[in-house]
Design brief:
This protein is mainly alpha-helical and about 130 residues long. The chain is built from five helices and no strands. α2 crosses α4.
């Protein structure tokens, strides 16, 4: 469920940032992707923290957390907002450039493959890109 929201956020930020930059260029594709990667960290970082803590907890009735939301609520209760955002800098350092490269690569491949509307091979080309 979280990935649906993250993908909507990423593609929305990327598209709006690209429009705000004014023209489509490789640099702007990278910058728009990097902006999208940075913004999605606000959601991705706490989700990954909860996922990691859930995977590390003991199994059975001695479990500390009942699920992702319970985990985040307990972290917030014990450590506050700082605890929920633990690892944010590392996540930003990973996601910002990687999303920039992702969107730049996708754009370069779609251009190189000649992905044009009406092309009978459009879908396979887009999937390859």
């Amino acid at each position: 469920m979280g990935l649906t929201f993250i993908n909507a956020l990423v593609f929305g930020v990327q598209g709006n940032t690209l429009r705000a930059l004014g023209h489509d260029s490789p640099l702007n594709q990278f910058l728009a992707g990097a902006a999208a990667g940075a913004i999605q960290c606000v959601i991705c970082c706490p989700m990954e923290l909860a996922k990691t803590r859930l995977q590390l907890q003991d199994a059975g009735p001695a479990r500390t957390y009942k699920g992702s939301l319970d985990c985040l609520a307990q972290i917030y209760g014990h450590e506050g907002l700082r605890g929920v955002n633990r690892g944010m800098v590392s996540t930003l350092l990973r996601e910002t450039p990687s999303f920039g490269v992702y969107f730049l690569t996708y754009d370069a491949l779609t251009r190189a493959l000649g992905c044009e509307p009406g092309d009978r091979l459009l879908v396979p080309k887009l999937l390859l890109a």
